[in-house]
Write a structure and sequence with these properties.
By secondary structure, the chain is an alpha+beta fold. Helices cover 23% and strands 28% of the residues. The strands form eight sheets. Strands 9-8-7-6-5-2-1-10 form an eight-stranded parallel sheet.
Amino acid sequence: MKRTASSTIPTGLNVSNQGLFSARALITVLMVAIAFSCRAQNPDAPLMGWSSWNTFALNISDTLIMRQADAMVSSGLKAAGYSYVNIDDGYFYGRDEWGRLLVNPKTFPHGLRPVVDHIHSLGLKAGIYSDAGHSTCGCFGTQDPLCLDVGLYGHDQQDMNLFFKELDFDFIKVDFCGGSPGANKQRLHLSERERYTDIAAAITATGRKGVRLNACRWAYPGTWIENVCGSWRTTGDINMSWNSVRSIISENLYLADYSFAGHFNDMDMLEVGRGLTTEEDQTHFGLWCVMNSPLLIGCDMTGINAQTLSLLTNKELIAVNQDKTFQQAYVAKKVGDCFVLVRDVEKVGGTSRVVAVYNPSDNNQDVSFLLSDIDLDGTKTTFRDLFYGADATAAVFSPSDGTVNVSVPAHGTRIYKVKAAKRLERRRYEAETAYNPSYQEIENNQAAATGTYSYDNSCSGGLKATWLGKTERNALHFRHVESKKGGKYRLTVAYQSGEKRAMKVLVNGSEAGNLSVEAGSWSEVRTLTMQVTLKKGTNTIVLTNAADWMPDIDYINLEPVA
């Protein structure tokens, strides 16, 4: 017998008609309480759980999903914070004459409800999958006629009522194979914005609260997605290779300001424990944590080995991912081939930060930077190695000159929680840490006049913001410029430009001046300086040109005027 809450009567209860009614009522109350406790968890933190696709693809069944849920509990993964068990494609069986979605009777002979009930009975949450078009990604690759017309297109409200009112799922991932003409048999070319907005509205119309929606469009969809979903895929599908992991990291290094509480850049499911080296697994999991990606395990939890389990349940790394500041780490500096990423933990603007030194190269690297490069100061600063849960201060920090020295192996990352005596005002704001309201990765950015980011080794952080201007929205917004006292500052703008261009500088919505650049070089970084006035607290500095193209921007620097 399947272990579901709805098929179990507590021992010791009277099972006469009246007693059976009471038992059923009690079970219903307990199920509601369990479901409520699941949904009451913090919705502002990245989602943690497991999805079926990476290991099992379309080869799933009710017993397989329920065994994975059991393993999430018995392995200690639930205790570590993982709670979602997601059916990721592969359960369909066409639609009936009324358009109602059917479930495969061979692999899910009792339907989906017992699976959901079983997951909920364990104190976990249940996730489901669909597509914005007529068919799903898994179905597109098969010739099975029962895979046709199982996507949401034309059935948004019908399917959302099924998933969230009848079956009581808690999460849905919505793919886009059925909406992209190169990946669906109908050659549909649907609007991402329209489809995901309609799907979100259909979820709201069910009356269910707390449902989490993930948009899987394989690229950053555009800033409109912030108003629609709690998470969105930023890249193509991950696979079990270092090149795949490295590529996904590289595409997310400039997206820090597009992530915030309850809204996260999804770097895709975890390949941890599926064949990468130990160093690569650590980089993979560690950077997913510090960059605030959802953490969805992709390996078979019933056969997880001790090393993988130890990494996936690392409480200090998970605490960073779930930290109440809800920040994605941003690039503070590039040293050789390595990136130094930093973010706050515990308190925004506080003296505790997490720093990750990431080496994407195929060679070991020795990295040195100043404590002030991560906006901290103090000889009594401590460094805690989050992979090994041990103090590493003596090994990496020289208090006499304030340097941090880290040796990072090929494909490796070193992650430390840093506690310092003093928080410094940030001086350097790399352009790749700024927000562009027009940013998107779906359309050709030049045709759409939307800015983008580009890797450039001549730039201080290894990246720059480019193709800026032409419209009011295509501007660079530095939205988190902090000043402890306010006052006058020297603003330095580092740029590249092969022709004469101009830009307007706005500070907190008011025009502060205009900067014009002469023809120079698209590879040589030059600087311009002007004086601005900041208020005490958080400021926004905008570089904009609504009529014409702007120069490429490397960074801005701010120094108080004595």
